[in-house]
Amino acid sequence: MEIESGVLPAVRNMKDFDKALETSQATIVLLETRLSQLKNLVHYAKRANKRVFIHADLIQGLKSDEYGMEYLIREVKPDGLLSTRGNVISLAKKHHLIAIQRLFLLDSKALDNNLKLVERLQPDCVEVLPGLIPSIIEEVFQSTNIPIIAGGLIKNDMQVKAALDAGAVAVSTSKTELWN
């Protein structure tokens, strides 16, 4: 299963969830929601022929341990998981979901540590935050040869284009005006 190119709608609230279902994008990312809503959100998204990636670290009421991930994988049934946590990435891969390792690149030490983590875990895709630094997008891709999603602080079409031109396969954003 591949990551589609372009903008991936990243949903933070119910109003935006409805907008995401109306986009032409085949995939949506669920960022912040309550565990009690998650199964229904995934069900509605799949009824709208959308693939769903869930940011496991941001689901309120979900513990990112083996049992929490077991519930997510068996009961909620997303197509992919995003996380900063290695155990979540490993479990996603084990259960044949798309595994997206989220990297916060605050400085060169964080970059080095995260590249080692990616090398060890071998996720299907890497999300780089902030996604505003084209040279870092290029460096991470050259170091890992894993598709890159640029995310965080992207506010306009020029920034989307710069990230895609730098080699990102997609851009995730909660800015609804960028979704189409």
UniProtKB/TrEMBL annotation:
Source superkingdom: Bacteria
Q: Does the keyword Secreted apply?
A: no
Q: Does the keyword Transcription regulation apply?
A: yes
Keywords per UniProt: Glycerol metabolism, RNA-binding, Transcription, Transcription regulation
Q: One Pfam annotation, family name?
A: G3P_antiterm
Q: What InterPro entries does the database record attribute to this sequence? A: Aldolase_TIM, GlpP
Say what the protein does: Regulates expression of the glpD operon. In the presence of glycerol 3-phosphate (G3P) causes antitermination of transcription of glpD at the inverted repeat of the leader region to enhance its transcription. Binds and stabilizes glpD leader mRNA.
Protein name from the UniProt record: Glycerol uptake operon antiterminator regulatory protein
Organism field: Virgibacillus natechei
